[in-house]
Design brief:
The complex is a heterodimer. Chain A is an alpha/beta fold. Chain A is built from 14 helices and 20 strands. In chain A, α8 links the parallel β11 and β12. Chain A is globular, with a radius of gyration of 20 Å. Chain B is of the alpha+beta class. Chain B is built from 16 helices and six strands. Classes of the chains: A alpha/beta, B alpha+beta. Chains A and B meet through α12, β17 and α13 of A and α5, α6, α8, α10 and α14 of B. The structure holds iron/sulfur cluster. The site of iron/sulfur cluster has 10 residues of chain A, from β8.
């Protein structure tokens, strides 16, 4: 994993005097700092770079967010998994060729919200709204949950406010390795530390700056040793010649280190992207081959692998997990009802529960 | 600004430092100029003691074609620097019509050459031109402005969008030359698709365009397209689609063959989603009387027994590479 590289820190004037801002600036000592009225001057700077997306990952904007909790938008026409996002940070210092944030965030710099205390109230309100069943929330949709944790220690803060709230499950999803901040976390029943996994060859070519597969697995194993629940995400699964062997090895290496009981869930999703990402990613990653695969344009306009291939990828992956008795932990991310149905019929032998698969709910 | 009448021959038309528009004079303008001459003065500035045209290229061209000897002009103060003059030329045209991407690139090149700071061009001019205000776009436009005139004219007349132009610029100059001779034979929609598919193929295979064009599956078709055979364009697109979408093409071919084998009864229509996202068939049957209905149902029942439908459903539900 590469070191966090921040060229400049920009402070939103409205949080200039905030205690947390001061703490962050202390931790970032030595970097140039500028106080601004909004993120616009940061964007103006970033857009002058030949690689504005890459540049946006090297400027840190300290600000406050009006609110944090949002329903995960999923994709129209796909079966949602009832996930909620907590957008404490925006953007990510890692640089995955397939990352939709490149297109989605519109040159938003790395953004840290210092008014996180407000989340406590939002969470109370969220609970008061009386949602039924178990609800999953996570910070890993518009950012990597742990990439800036060394700086913000958001994981400890989040753990603290989620601890004891049985109905709410927090997921911290990352492509980083074991971090100092994780070392200090006392486990909680309803908190899952999750790692996105891919074969090392995919990490080498497509996930720049992230931890190696080995580092991620070691981190997960360490988390389990410390008593945490863990989760895994195979999303996006990348199809290439030899993919099956590579992914089977990854699955096998999970179970060499992690007992099944410690795994809360595993998601499967295949490469998909909005059209705007195609030219942008080809420009930014001229060596990447993933955009030259066979795709269909789905009804909502995204590029996806064709359904016959997606279904096969999921079936094969499920087979790999079944060898370890773990197929019950699987769920699909952003898939059509049709693909879900096939998946459940074949893989889970007729289980019709479309909700996310806490094993104890089956 | 001073109003004057000058001799057309006094204009230094060799000096086109302020020229960035590409519309040639049209017939209506020619008619009007031949009837009443040029009424609206063109804008000029003195450079090395000769008037240089700032705005009014179409009018001047029409005046020359009609053999006019004199021209009304508005002369800008000579001390005005080139950048300020070009800003005037730019905004004079800006309000009149949207610029093509080729014209936008030429305007950006001029701003750059007149030393407007890149940050100004990116932050101020690109948004005016409805282009993303980012450096890569600025750099792309500078590159486009240096294409040969025939390329610029195609981009201009066919109203190419930035994505298509960006794609074009990803080919080497030699490849572009060849590609253009092919693109000239295609419609606007076909141009983009052919470029996209060839570019993707090039990236996927690591081959040059020249190597790809010499491959057996493409060479004959490309030669026919270059000769101007319209039917060959569709064939070329079919082959390119098949190459970039092998799985879906293969399944669709097999499905078409199964449907042919079934031999659908008259007035029965079968539809399915060719992208194979949905794996259901839709059968529509038209019957004017009970006999029609019976014949169709019997025929379908018969084909069901012969196992064709089973294979068809297997193909629709196929899972694999
Ligand atoms: S780790 Fe996640 S958020 Fe970060 S660049 Fe990769 S895909 Fe994007």
């Amino acid at each position: 994993m590469v070191e966090l590289r921040i060229k400049k820190v920009w402070v939103d004037r409205k949080v200039e005097a905030d205690d947390f801002t001061r703490q962050l600036l202390d931790r970032l000592a030595g970097r140039p700092v500028e106080v601004v009225d909004s993120a616009e001057p940061v964007r103006e700077t970033v857009r002058l770079s030949s690689d504005p997306v890459g540049e946006s990952k090297q400027h840190l904007f300290i600000t406050a967010q009006p609110s944090f909790i949002r329903p995960c938008p999923c994709t129209p026409g796909c079966l949602g998994c009832g996930y909620w996002t907590i957008d404490l940070d925006l953007n990510c210092p890692f640089d995955c060729s397939y990352c939709i944030l490149q297109d989605y965030l519109g040159l938003q710099p790395l953004t840290v919200a210092v008014n996180r205390e407000q989340l406590r109230g939002e969470l109370e309100e969220f609970i008061r709204q009386g949602r039924s069943g178990l609800i999953r929330l996570g910070t890993g949709e518009l950012a990597d949950s742990l990439a800036l944790d060394g700086l913000t220690q958001n994981s400890a803060f989040l753990m603290d406010i989620f601890r004891g709230r049985e109905k709410l499950w927090l997921e911290l999803k990352s492509k980083s390795g074991w971090t100092q901040s994780l070392r200090l976390l006392a486990p909680a029943e309803n908190v899952v530390l999750a790692w996105s996994l891919n074969p090392q060859v995919v990490i080498d070519y497509e996930e720049k700056g992230t931890a190696s597969l080995e580092e991620r697995l070691q981190a997960a194993a360490e988390a389990v040793r410390q008593g945490h629940r863990v989760g895994f995400h195979f999303d996006p699964i990348i199809h290439y010649q030899g993919w099956r062997e590579d992914y089977a090895q990854v699955v096998e290496s999970i179970f060499r280190r992690i007992p099944l009981e410690a795994i809360a869930w595993v998601s499967l999703g295949s490469l998909r992207f909005p059209p705007g990402l195609l030219s942008l990613a080809r420009r930014r990653f001229p060596e990447s081959q993933i955009y030259e695969h066979e795709f269909i344009r789905s009804a909502e306009g995204k590029y996806r692998y064709p359904r016959p291939l997606r279904q096969w990828l999921y079936k094969e992956m499920a087979g790999m997990f079944a060898e370890f008795g773990a197929e019950g932990r699987l769920y699909l991310c952003m898939e059509s009802v049709e693909v879900w149905q096939e998946f459940l019929d074949k893989i889970k032998r007729g289980r019709r529960n479309f909700a996310f698969p806490f094993p104890w709910q089956c | 600004m001073v109003y004057k009448i000058i001799r057309l021959t006094d204009l230094n038309l060799e000096d086109n430092r302020f020229h960035f528009t590409l519309n040639p004079s049209d017939r209506r303008l020619l008619r009007s100029v031949s009837e009443i001459g040029v009424m609206q003065p063109v804008i000029v500035i003195l450079r090395q003691n000769r008037p240089v045209l700032i705005d009014g290229w179409r009018r001047v061209e029409a005046a020359r074609s009609c053999g006019l000897e004199q021209l009304p002009v508005l002369e800008i103060a000579e001390k005005t620097d080139d950048l300020a003059v070009f800003l005037l030329a730019f905004f004079e045209n800006y309000g009149q019509r949207p610029f093509s991407l080729a014209e936008k690139s030429l305007a950006i090149r001029k701003f750059h050459d007149f030393e407007l700071h890149p940050a100004e061009i990116i932050g101020r001019i690109l948004p005016l031109l409805e282009l993303p205000p980012e450096r890569w776009m600025f750099e792309l436009m500078l590159e486009v402005s240096q294409l040969e005139k025939r390329f610029l004219e195609t981009i201009h007349h066919r109203d190419w969008k930035p994505v298509a132009v960006e794609l074009l610029m990803k080919f080497t100059p030699a490849e572009r030359d060849w590609l253009f001779s092919l693109l000239e034979k295609l419609t606007h929609g076909q141009q983009r698709e052919v470029m996209e598919r060839l570019y993707s193929l090039k990236r996927k295979t690591g081959k040059s365009l020249d190597q790809l064009a010499r491959e057996e599956r493409l060479a004959g078709l490309i030669a026919r397209v270059l000769k101007g055979e319209r039917a060959a364009v569709d064939d070329l697109l079919t082959v390119l689609r098949r190459v970039s979408s092998p799985l879906i093409s293969r399944l669709n071919q097999a499905i078409a063959e199964e449907i042919r084998q079934i031999g659908l009864p008259e007035r029965v229509r079968l539809d399915y989603d060719p992208s194979l996202e949905k794996r259901v068939l839709r059968l529509t049957l038209e019957a004017a009387e009970q006999g029609d209905l019976k014949r169709a149902v019997d025929s379908l029942a018969d084909s069901l027994e012969r196992g064709y439908w089973k294979r068809l459903f297997q193909l629709l539900g196929y899972e694999g590479e």
